[in-house]
């Protein structure tokens, strides 16, 4: 059985011999790569379909049981309805066929997969209509239209959380199964044997948008600095680099004191920063899941997230595995982070509860098994690996 995985793939965290070679940058999403690695570890042959803005011609790379097909992406694809990208991906899928395709997100990758006629399961990691409502621009309108085409054509859908599922219409729900996101088994191997916490809190967010709500996080930190004058705030992710939108806002509002604008960073470096942080503050107004919170729970870093922020309350076990706050209120955010910093017993309890809840509900073993069982239902037969599953290896 050869399983195709279509979506944004971070090539440098794939479990293959080429991770340290000169690879093109892609539209990266770590979870897709973790899923591919999990399939490889369980003995499946995998063909990954992704794309890049850095290549002039399509590329095919192979290592062991993994083949990666990289299609092209042109600048400003939304202006062309992603038609070039869909066609380039589709050509790759036809030239390098899999028996079955798991497509991440309900956009160009899934559209291309459905055009092949191969059995395809589309994973929903957001709800396009809700995003369009919150960010009503032309790009999100195009994304919603593509999502409409994909969801209409797909026979098998997965929602990455109960929150995502509950936002779907009745017809879409009827063909959707809920399978949560997961953290990779190798994440524990990335933990430092001894952790020395730095004197900082951290926020990891991709984009300075109304949804991510970084501005309220900055306001909350300004309040915390009055109580903890040596505390720092690390901002990591797109738009949080020096000179980026987050810093521009902070400078206008006089909120830069103690803030380090770090911008996008490699996955392993971000995880290390999370592990060494005192607290992960997640000011987002809405999340369909919240992978960075899950990673912090495994890193034994306490989390503060929004009590009304999509799936976040469930992910934090309604305040038992992390503290919940009103993300519209800088005072509420600062208060909950301050509680953790001031109370060693609360700190230890949140670390224990967060780690245990994540391990019992969102581990790779738990979630990938659900995927494989569902794929077997779709195909009408169990999925058979091509080799015996490998023994998990520790990652340095």
From TrEMBL:
<keyword id="KW-0808">Transferase</keyword>
<dbReference type="InterPro" id="IPR028098">
    <property type="entry name" value="Glyco_trans_4-like_N"/>
</dbReference>
<feature type="domain" description="Glycosyltransferase subfamily 4-like N-terminal">
    <location>
        <begin position="34"/>
        <end position="182"/>
    </location>
</feature>
<dbReference type="Pfam" id="PF13439">
    <property type="entry name" value="Glyco_transf_4"/>
</dbReference>
<dbReference type="GO" id="GO:0016757">
    <property type="term" value="F:glycosyltransferase activity"/>
</dbReference>
<feature type="domain" description="Glycosyl transferase family 1">
    <location>
        <begin position="196"/>
        <end position="355"/>
    </location>
</feature>
<protein>
    <submittedName>
        <fullName>Glycosyltransferase involved in cell wall biosynthesis</fullName>
    </submittedName>
</protein>
<dbReference type="GO" id="GO:0009103">
    <property type="term" value="P:lipopolysaccharide biosynthetic process"/>
</dbReference>
<dbReference type="InterPro" id="IPR001296">
    <property type="entry name" value="Glyco_trans_1"/>
</dbReference>
<dbReference type="Pfam" id="PF00534">
    <property type="entry name" value="Glycos_transf_1"/>
</dbReference>
